[in-house]
Amino acid sequence: MASFSVSAPFVCLILVAFLAASVQALVRPQLDAEAQPPSGLITVPLDKQYVPVVRNNRTVMYKTAYFGNIFVGTPAQPFTVVFDTGSGHFIIPSSKCASEPCGLHRRYQRNESSSAVDIDHDGNEVPADIEERDQVSVAFGTGEIVGEFSRETVCFTQGGMSDAASEGSGETGSNVSLPGAAGADCTRVRVVFATEMTEDPFSAFEFDGVLGLGLEALALDPEFSFMGQIMRLNTLMDASFGVFVSNRDDVASEITFGGHDPRRVSDELQWASVHKPELGYWLLKIRGIKVGGEPLELCESGDCVAIADTGTSLLGVPKNAAQHVHWLLARNVDGNPDELDCRGHQGPEIEFDLGDFVVTLGAEEYSRPAGLRVVTNATNETQFICRAQLLPVDEGAALGDKAFILGEPVLRKYYTAYDWGKSRIGFAHAVQPEAADPDSPRTHRIVGAPPAELPTPTVVYI
Question: What is the CB-side half-sphere exposure of residue 176 using CA atoms within 13 A?
Answer without folding.
Answer: 27
